[in-house]
Amino acid sequence: MRRWTTPRSSVWSAGTRVPPEFDAALRAYAALAERDDDTIHHRGGSMLLAHGRPTARAVLFLHGLTASPMQCNALARRLHANGDSVIVPRLPGHGARDRLTTQLRDVPAQHLIDAAYEGLAIARGLGASVVVAGFSLGGMIAQQLALEHPQLVGRLILLGTGPRGGEGMTFTELSPEEQADPVAFLLAAFFSPSEASQSAGREYVKRLESRKTDRDLPVSRDAAVAQVAALREWGTIPATGRYATLTSITHPTLIVHGNKDIVVTPINAFILEEHLPNAQLIMYPDASHAAYSQYAENFLENARLFLRG
Fold first, then answer.
1. CA 179 to chain centre
2. pTM of the full structure
3. Which superfamily does 11-308 belong to?
4. 283 near 259, Cβ under 8 Å?
């Protein structure tokens, strides 16, 4: 029903039968995509980029809160072109055709984690090893998957995110005017105040606006408020052992952050690097929440090097 780049066939490479795990993964994805009914924007549904056969590596990409799989489209397609299978599940309460909906406020955090696990199970059938990548709240969910199902995850890529109980993960530096104006909100939250970063942000907005038909509507104020609330919930400081769980995430991990991120402050990336036993950090200069997008080519090259390791 939604995006496919692989024929749903049971035969591959010179008549060899598709492994049952791969066939099961395609069926599971088909069932997942069936949930993208008429209430979901036609560009907001789950995404599968596969190769018609199992690959050495599959990537599960988890989008940010208030967004949809389309947020990951450019990066997902680059990874797919590099030979990976990629699945980007639509998280519950996201991708609605009506961007003024308030349903996201009623989605329990556990439902988001459950949906991510469903995507992880599908990814396991698509590739011999699985990389879980997540942006913002998606990166927080990725950490939870690695904690709860360590044997199912090979590597982690954490983009613009922080640990549970992290420092100051709110929008306190955004003015009411910036929160009310979708373009101002994007430029203030995702790009730093410098002219170079704002210019990159304006170019990003221009690319979004260049699509004359079927354009996504702006994120509503209620959706932005929901994102603030979710980040604050994740940022609640535990009574004891604030970062103790991070030592249990032993997977090779690439952390990517902007040094002027005001959504998830940069100190959180350093906390992740310090407490995750097998992590490396890229801190991009003059970049805010969308650092991996602002430095897309450099990030992709570093991601390729990390994944080869």
1. 22
2. 0.79
3. Alpha/Beta hydrolase fold, catalytic domain (3.40.50.1820)
4. yes
